[in-house]
Amino acid sequence: MILPMVLQYLTPDFVSFFGLGAVSAAVMSSADSSVLSASSMFARNVYKLIFRQRASEMEIIWVMRVSIFVVGILATIMALTIPSIYGLWSMCSDLVYVILFPQLLMVVHFKEHCNTYGSLAAYIMALLVRVSGGEPLLGLPALIHFPGWDGERQLFPFRTLAMLISLITLAGVSWGTRYVFESGYLSPSYDLFRCVVNIPEDVVRVGEPAEGELAVMTSGAMGPLYGTSATAATLVGKDEMNGRINPALETDEDDPALDLNDMKKRAASIPNNQIQQPNTQTQL
Fold it and tell me: What is the mean pLDDT of the chain?
């Protein structure tokens, strides 16, 4: 708040006008970037990956547009009801520690021990435990009085407790869902999130190869999946990443210059004794 007060009271009117306009523009730029980022993450990472895996690009765009209005309304309500910016920043850091830290830890370091079911259950558990401890900034009363409750605030580290419960839930539910699906207790049709046994075929094919599998792929053992061994050998190249070709790095086959270079390379590879010299004599 120091800069706006300096511009308002210690500078001429025209300087204050342009200075406050620049501050307002910077705030608006940050705000709309945050709203767009939250909407796009919901549309791409939640709606498409969890609810509608086969959603078209136009459908994703419409979901993003609706999400922009919803997030903007929620942000406006939050800005009008929360009196402290510092308190809002502290609460956001609190939620990141309680909800997102276990997810990030498991995905980065223990990827094989987590899946979508565990992540969703851990998210819900962390949110419920955190909200049950109360939040004075939002006017939420404490639903559970943890040890050390003094009548107004929680002295017990319930935020760390919520984080640990989320971490245990994530690992436990992930292991449980993997066990019931892989052991046959549940049919693959019940794998709604398609992350344990009902995995799409294209995801299986382009998965990251284990150690030693890259040489097998290039030797032609991937023929049953991709076709003949000659085709499989051409799939692994310098422009390929995890089985997908980057279109930006592909050469343009319609370029005449590239065709000319290809002809020169073929001509250079033919032995000199096999090259037929043109007949320069003409018959009268």
Answer: 77
